[in-house]
Amino acid sequence: MSADTIEMTEAMGAHLAVFEEAGQSPQEAVEFARATIALAYRGAWKFQLYPPGMAPRVGVVQLRPYAADDRGKTIE
């Protein structure tokens, strides 16, 4: 697998700044965001909400209430 090159836009910088507030590096932030969306895609295909290979429309992200032992966990 080759490394991706991502253009740093003003919007991307603003989004990364939010992750940095939560203590994540830019690398961690990008990995988290990609993993989150990939999970949504896999679920859409697994549960046959979208045909395999078609990008689903993501409308909602479900958040769990904060618990002290959740530190470091970002996606399940």
Which class do the helix and strand fractions yield?
Answer: mainly alpha
Strand content: under 5%
- The chain-level mean pLDDT equals 86
Low-confidence stretches: none
Number of E-state strands: 0
SSE pattern: HH
Which shape, going by the Cα principal axes?
globular
Largest sheet: none
Radius of gyration of CA atoms, rounded to a whole number: 15 Å
Helix content: 40-55%
Helical element count? Answer: 2
Tell me the distance between the termini: 24 Å
Description:
This protein has helices at residues 10-21, 26-46. The chain has 76 residues and is mainly alpha-helical. The radius of gyration is 15 Å and the shape is globular.
Provide the fold topology:
Elements: H1 10-21, H2 26-46
Quick structural overview:
This protein has 76 residues and is an all-alpha fold. It contains 2 helices and no strands. The chain has helices at 10-21, 26-46.
Please name the defining characteristics of this protein.
76 residues; mainly alpha; 2 helices
